[in-house]
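Section: protein folds

Sequence with per-residue tokens
===
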Amino acid sequence: MAVAVSGGPDSLALLHLLTRLRGPWQLGLLAIHVDHGLRPDSRDDARFVEEAGRALGVPVIVRTADVKAERRPGESWQQAARRVRYRLLEEVAAAEGAHRVALAHHADDQAETILLRLLRGAGAAGLGGMRPKRGLYVRPLLWVARQEIEAYCRAFRLSFRADPTNRSLRYLRNRIRHRLLPLLEAEFNPNVRAVLNRTATLLREDDDYLEELARQAFQQLGRPEDGLSVDGLSRLPRPLARRVLRLAVQQAGVELAAVSAAHVDRMLSLAGDEAPKAGCRPVTLPGGVRVRRESGRLVMEWPGTGGETGDEGGGAVDCPLVVPGRTVVEPWNVAVEADLIPCAQAGSRNAARSLQGPAARGDGEAPGGSAGRHGEGPVREVDLDWEQVVPPLRVRAWRPGDRMRPLGLGGSKKLQDIFVDAKVPAKRRHQVPVICDEQGILWLAGLRVDERGAAGPRTRQVLRLRVVPL
């Protein structure tokens, strides 16, 4: 088990507690610290965590992030730091063979999260708060109050680092922590934190049940690439119809976190009885995916598909890949990021991990889709052996007749057959980035890596490629 350790009291208490349990539970432990580089003294936090790890007999891996460089347009510093932090946690866990990553979120964090989402207008799924277990991540302290954690630190004389940004009232979460929650406790309910946590548990149970019903309905309405039946949607209760549309959007490769309630409402209106008379316009989703009504179905179109055929626009993409650097592929609304990393810094993350993506499980993803968490979605990042690459590199669309030698297959295979195996819809195949050098295809993004360029035990310098939505 890997433990994300910031150096604060919560993560130090969690790490200390797990060291006490590693004997009875037969745990192998690893601490991971992510230095976001956003504060002048952030390196001091990293050194502190390294010293704490040595004192507890736990190895510590420190990863440094350049959040300023990786921040996306319209993204807050906190959102960018969180996204980068989770990506690095997953990379280290994969490289070190950790089966779980433990996070130190506690009951007070949960109460703050619920209020934060309530103020932003979340539904039942959002108001269910953080889950104790989700994919790679576990939160063992989610039912423990902050004051209990502080008491634990005092009892075991644990020292920790204080993050001054946690006191700044410029951040909404801190205003909830230092102003709103104390007001609710003083004026309305002294047990409001426990009440919010209990409410979150009840809503998570409801949400799980509704999601299962929505998945069953979704399977009956048809695949998104063929269109969803308007009649079928109209017969569903509105709460289920909303969830079915979100499932369709997610399967279409749209980043679900960017899809608002307003997007879903517009899609519901498009499926309504009055839509044909009103001449409702198509709904454009984040990433450029358009949802339109046609012949009693809601049809989704991906950028560059040229309407229904899927063979126009996207197939013309062919541009040089900047190494190292960032190449924006505008027709697909994605960027390909390339970094050269000494193998010692890259860890043991191997290109073979991309083989465990959709090609192994039978699912596919559009280029604008999210990277997915470990065990939850396709891998949108790969490590190649730079010494085996023959520059210049290019990013282009699939062409009929394209072949590659997928790692682990022991022979060549047509890209068209890979798409079929991975169940990638025909409309979307021209939008899956194909990375080539002078000798052929190196990576079919999110699906397969070629055995010639795959990083391995003898790799000395890694070319790390990542496909990210704009």
Remarks:
- Residues 222-301 form a domain with the Uridine Diphospho-n-acetylenolpyruvylglucosamine Reductase; domain 3 fold (CATH 3.30.465.60).
